[in-house]
Amino acid sequence: MRDPVAPGTVHSDSTGGQAARDVLNRFYHPVTLGEPESAESVIQINVIQLGPLTVGHFRFTGRATLVAAEGDAYHVTLPTAGRVMARRNGHEVTAGPSTAVTFRPGDPVYLRPQAPSAELDVRIDRCALESELAALLGHPVEGPIDLPAAFDLTGGPAHSWSRLIRLMHDELDHEASLIFRPLVAEHLCSSVLSGLLLSVPHRYHAELVAPATAGPPRAIRRALDAIDAEPDQAFTVADLARIARMSVRSLQEGFRRHLGCTPMAYLHQTRLTRAHETLRRADPAMVTVAAVAHRWGFAHLGRFASAYRTRFGVSPSDTLRRTA
């Protein structure tokens, strides 16, 4: 099982010149920042890392050219204001808020924002995206994945995926955001990766969206046993699929067919049951509801209390006080 994705460095700055290059080199690729602007030109930068995923918002008030001889990861640029000209494999693409542009590992990166403009830049470690695809399919994949040079953001899954990226950026302004909880960050990171794979054409896309075969009961039982043994662990669907020795999609279909729920729903209900049992046995003078919730993997106390009341008809604090 993978360690939970811990939210990494959050960087926010208004800068230019060498300082901007340092930020780009640190969070993205080794790049050169061409056409130094006048002294008043500024690049406003806001970046967060969630393990293998980096999402940054860049606002350009002057002309700039970003060039990397060879990208070392998957990169998606989503303009949010103005336009950006990109070049991939000798072909030029001009993108605005309705279009995203991509670069694959090994591609030269060339971006020329047409100031004033702003964009969201998503960097995904090569191994992470290809491992996510392999887990979804249940077999190894040959990379790099042939993401298109550009794709439309105005509708369908790609539009939904772009909203997820914008949500991540919007949450950076809130210190108490769930995005800073490792358990939430883990699932959010996986959602971004799998969402991209489902949103754009590539050679594995048809297989990815085809109906999945349900995993056999014996394999599903391996996942159930893992959950029942350690429901407090930060399992992802991919973790459970590896334990069951099947693809993520077969695991999900197997749970739906044999249990009538998703793997994550089963995990959630198992955690609620364990929390209920712990509260019933606990001494209210020694234990708090918050401690029990966190013990069983619930990061948000309010949502835990709501789900608990729906399941058991009483609040967690009522259950705890009844032990007195």
From TrEMBL:
Name of this protein: AraC family transcriptional regulator
UniProt keyword list: Activator, DNA-binding, Transcription, Transcription regulation
A Pfam family that the UniProt record links to this protein: HTH_18
Species of provenance: Actinoplanes awajinensis subsp. mycoplanecinus
InterPro entries, per the entry: AraC-bd_2, AraC_XylS_family_regulators, Homeodomain-like_sf, HTH-like, HTH_AraC, HTH_AraC-typ_CS
Cross-referenced PANTHER family: HTH-TYPE DNA-BINDING TRANSCRIPTIONAL ACTIVATOR EUTR, HTH-TYPE TRANSCRIPTIONAL ACTIVATOR RHAS-RELATED
Ranges for domain HTH araC/xylS-type: 221-322
Cross-referenced PROSITE patterns: HTH_ARAC_FAMILY_1, HTH_ARAC_FAMILY_2
Gene3D superfamilies, per the entry: Homeodomain-like
GO molecular function: DNA-binding transcription factor activity; sequence-specific DNA binding
